[in-house]
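Progress report, Aim 2. The chain analyzed during this reporting quarter is listed below.
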Amino acid sequence: MLTAHQLHVAGRRHTLLPATTAQAQRGELLLIQADGQERRTALALTLSGRMKPSSGSVVLGHDSSMASLRRRSALVDSPNVNAPEHHLTARSLTSEDLALVPLKFRDRTRPTAWLVKHGFRDVLDQWIEELKPDRLLHLQLELALANRDVDLLVIDSPDRHTADVSAWLPLLEAAAAGELGRGPEAHPQSPPRPLLVIGVVGRLPDEWDGTAAVAGNAVSHEPLEQEVTERKLSKNDADDPPAAAPDATGEPKEAAPAETEVEPQPEAAGERSDVDHQDTEKLMTAPSARDLEPTATNAPDETTPEEKP
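Predicted structure tokens for the chain:
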């Protein structure tokens, strides 16, 4: 069994994978829906041990080692990671993938013999872009299972090649049931090789009733709801008037009436003014505005004494 718990990948500018929890059983196909190719690839890389999560864990069986997860898993058809390039032929792709198998076997340097033995004689010299989606996926699954240590297959976006679900879903179910990877030389009575198979898809098929999960299903909204509740409570407390404190007898005191602005009343005769005595003397002796205005002066005659007759 594979268990992914609170798996989260933080990107440099945004979250690549929100917290996701899922379980896969041996012999069963698990489909995980994720929006966007970037998120699907991040999930596939993390589930196969090719990318270290920012938080959370992936445990295969009882082993939580990332090295063990990488050794026992195979990432299939991941865009911009290990998806076959279109300039390759089926023979070239087979030669490259068999050379990466850590175990030694006699077909490592004989890609043509391997293709013929596994039923791909008709596509020996065809370009990758010429292969039908089901044939290309079948070839990649068989190449991944050439490594006998593989117990987990993670297929990245198998539905991106075609809208026909029958081109990829039966192949993933057959791989989980152990019908692939046995080779034509396997004895009919030999036990099957059931696997853990996870398909990371953009949309769950309508007819799918098996095990499924959605990326981001472990994201909790409780902190946000708690924050909203606290804000509402604090707002209600601010709007309510403060409760009256109890007096010595234990009975609550009546709230004091609100202070109202009282208009100043004219002073009665004989009452002291609020202005002190010194200020009163200053006000009595201060010149008025009228006294400060310039007074008219007798202007001198425009004619000088010499100019008078």
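Confidence is low (pLDDT under 50) at residues 221-229, 258-262, 266-309. The first helix runs from residue 37 to 47. These observations will guide the mutagenesis work planned for the next reporting period.
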